């Protein structure tokens, strides 16, 4: 073998040995570069604010706040200044919102506004005008009473609970639905009832009644209010609040939009929904109550419930009316 070939063979063998030895050795640790990405907290929905925990004033007493004016006599053709103005206009102006799934929401596939409250308003318009001609005005919860006082809308059909305080400023129809205040949390949350909310943030709708119920049952909770219930769901998904307290009608709608949520705990109280009507519009109050009587009797109420609120279980039946006169 020539000297050149011996050198080449020696070098090749050394390389093979080096590969074998190297394969048995521990590879060097990879070079870890410090992360350069930065993260910011997701924005809070516009209008969200922490509600100061102040002692609630003693509730007003007004007898039975759900008692309303009796409908016009059966077979009579009702008239009155408010009814005549609506008929002359040819449409019923309804205040509601489009963020309360199941009760009043915009269908993304059609763009139409639908829901339990919307169907109730359609029945009122059908009786008054002969067809369900509606014009919708989108209101936040805090705007409902002012819109009626300023005659911006004829009625408000927006999960509006009848209370003595509100009766000081507006009128109501008879009760058309009885809701129950409950709590919504994310699946896997350790919160099992309102008693577990101490030290946790709870979202409620601005201008609604659930905040008082939360503090009544758990004074240690921190309450955050937002203009729309859909904002509460966003904050829950972004871990900016730990729970949502609202009527079961609204929570069921939020739960259908996020399968990783669940409704917990017993009812914190009953909410009696009424159609909001401007103060002194007695003819409209009586007419609306006539429509509500009709849909209780002819099965329309049950049909509307089955269409929108079957998520809550079998129909409880329409609530009976109580009248002042």
TrEMBL record:
The keyword Signal applies. Pfam families: SBP_bac_3. One of its GO terms (cellular component) is outer membrane-bounded periplasmic space. Residues 91-312 form the Solute-binding protein family 3/N-terminal domain. The keyword Signal applies. It comes from the Bacteria. Belongs to the bacterial solute-binding protein 3 family. This is ABC transporter substrate-binding protein. The lineage of its organism: Bacteria, Bacillati, Actinomycetota, Actinomycetes, Mycobacteriales.
């Amino acid at each position: 073998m020539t000297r050149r070939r011996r050198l080449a063979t020696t070098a090749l063998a050394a390389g093979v040995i080096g590969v074998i030895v190297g394969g048995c050795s521990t590879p060097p640790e990879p070079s870890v570069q410090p992360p350069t990405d930065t993260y910011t907290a997701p924005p809070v929905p516009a209008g969200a604010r922490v509600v100061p925990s102040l002692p609630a004033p003693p509730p007003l007493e007004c007898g039975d706040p759900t008692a309303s004016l009796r409908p016009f006599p059966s077979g009579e053709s009702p008239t009155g200044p408010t009814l005549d103005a609506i008929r002359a206009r040819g449409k019923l102006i309804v205040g509601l919102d489009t963020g309360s799934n199941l009760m009043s929401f915009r269908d993304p596939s059609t763009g139409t506004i639908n829901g339990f409250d919307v169907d109730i308003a359609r029945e009122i318009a059908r009786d008054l005008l002969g067809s369900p001609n509606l014009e919708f005005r989108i209101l936040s919860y805090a705007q409902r009473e002012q819109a009626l006082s300023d005659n911006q809308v004829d009625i408000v059909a927006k999960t509006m609970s009848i209370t003595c305080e509100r009766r000081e400023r507006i009128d109501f129809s008879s009760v058309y639905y009885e809701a129950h205040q409950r709590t919504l949390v994310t699946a896997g949350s350790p919160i099992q009832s309102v008693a577990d909310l101490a030290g946790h943030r709870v979202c409620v709708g601005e201008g609604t009644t659930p905040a008082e119920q939360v503090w009544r049952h758990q004074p240690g909770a921190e309450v955050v209010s937002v203009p729309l219930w859909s904002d509460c769901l966003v904050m829950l998904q972004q871990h900016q609040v730990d729970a949502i307290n609202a009527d079961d009608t609204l929570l069921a709608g939020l739960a259908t939009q996020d399968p990783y949520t669940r409704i917990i705990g017993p009812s914190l109280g009953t909410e009696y929904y009424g159609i909001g009507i401007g103060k002194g519009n007695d003819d409209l109050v009586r007419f609306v109550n006539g429509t509500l009587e009709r849909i209780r009797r002819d099965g329309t109420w049950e049909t509307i419930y089955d269409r929108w609120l079957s998520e809550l279980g079998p129909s409880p039946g329409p609530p009976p009316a109580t009248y002042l006169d």
